[in-house]
Amino acid sequence: MALTLLRGMRTPISFRSSTGLFFTVLRPRLARFTTRAESAQATEAKAAAKSIQLATKEASEQKLQGFEAIIGIETHVQLSTVTKAFCSCPYNYGSQPNSTICPTCMGHPGTLPVLNEKVVECAVKLGLALNCEISMTSKFDRKQYFYPDLPKGYQISQFDIPIAKKGYVDLDLPVEFGGGHRKFGITRVHMEEDAGKLLHSESGSYSQVDLNRAGVPLLEIVSEPDMRTGIEAAEYGAELQRIVRYLGVSNGNMQEGSLRCDVNVSVRPVGQSEFGTKVEIKNMNSFSEINRAIDYEISRQILLHKEGQADQIVQETRLWDESSQKTFTMRKKEGLADYRYFPEPDLPEVVLTTDYIDEISKSMPELPEAKRRRYENMGLSMQDVLFLANDDNVAHFFDSTLEHGADAKLACNWIMGDIAAYLKNEKLSIDETKLTPLELSELIASIKNGIISGKIGKEILVELISKGGTVKGVIEEKDLVQV
């Protein structure tokens, strides 16, 4: 089951370790990938004399300098389906290497893909959630490129006819970042399969290939270049995470690779209509890293413009290094012609009906934007609204508490205050505690009616969260009625 690689570049072998079977690619000295430290040193040598801190500070004042940033994001969402996109293999994060693979997802000759219907359902759900036009007929295409963790030598994706296009997403920026409402365009949403995973050795002499992830279904969301700051881009990514979690199509965990954002950044003088040369940034594992990576890249490009070296900004893929807080060159960026797209001959067109789309539309939950507007109409502050709507479990708990007669503001204060502090300390989610919405509403009513004081209410809350029970029972058991 070894991979076939270009002769003279890499030699594949396979071996077993305590964690499972790996396919390993040996790297001759002249063909080794440049290590992170070496690459960072080589690409940033000319800028070493400049103060990165100063450049970052300048980036925050880019409009005053006469420059503006143009930012677009490509987001890959790994779907929570039982099986892969085109075969019956399961995928479980953390499984032993190469333990959930078959000839189809390994790209063996003679195998044929069969489309997982659930992937189409998830794609339509997300397209509707992002206010897109759903394509009644779409098709799959082959995207050709070579990489050791891509066993077929091509990726099944969608090119000219994606399943959804021309949408938008609405979001509210956090109050601490100035607040305000933003609307960002969505160019397209398309279905595709994931590649495997390469684990590079510390020495850089070989890489281990795990194909468990090969063939896992993805939805790629391509935004319009509507963002101008790192904060906007990070909040856009966070909103997509909220949406896929609300829909239940993905867990959206960035640390597991279930949601991955590749950011395209360019700068141009204010007033110029043409875009500058865009640079793609990868390897960001949190939304705060997205913010910092964009800020650094904006400052780097502005610095080159100011020094008359704008020609050194080339279309390339750069990696974000969290330890040095810098981006560095990974590879030159391919163009569409390099991928040699052509229609996938082994898969038929995806044809949808109006009844199918209507049925999915009726099953859609209340989405984050609608929930925020509903909470805002209750008279809650924007800070309250953003906190409650950020997590679907928290929002459901809050709504259930109101259904039992609790005051909206009081319920919000308890959830954002003592309950949130307890969850943070214990590293729990609200649905993992023993507190119920009914008992929180009873606790609020007991304080409001003067049966107990607010201080005693805090003691009872801890008891209810950790051990369960009822407010009335705890009051009677510990004789907590105030005189």
TrEMBL record:
Catalysed conversion reaction: L-glutamyl-tRNA(Gln) + L-glutamine + ATP + H2O = L-glutaminyl-tRNA(Gln) + L-glutamate + ADP + phosphate + H(+); L-aspartyl-tRNA(Asn) + L-glutamine + ATP + H2O = L-asparaginyl-tRNA(Asn) + L-glutamate + ADP + phosphate + 2 H(+)
EC numbers, comma separated: 6.3.5.-
Compartments reported by the entry: Mitochondrion; Plastid, Chloroplast
GO molecular function, one term: transferase activity
Domain Asn/Gln amidotransferase as annotated: residue spans: 396-483
Subunit relationships: Heterotrimer of A, B and C subunits.
Family from the record: Belongs to the GatB/GatE family. GatB subfamily.
Protein name: Glutamyl-tRNA(Gln) amidotransferase subunit B, chloroplastic/mitochondrial
Name of the gene: GATB
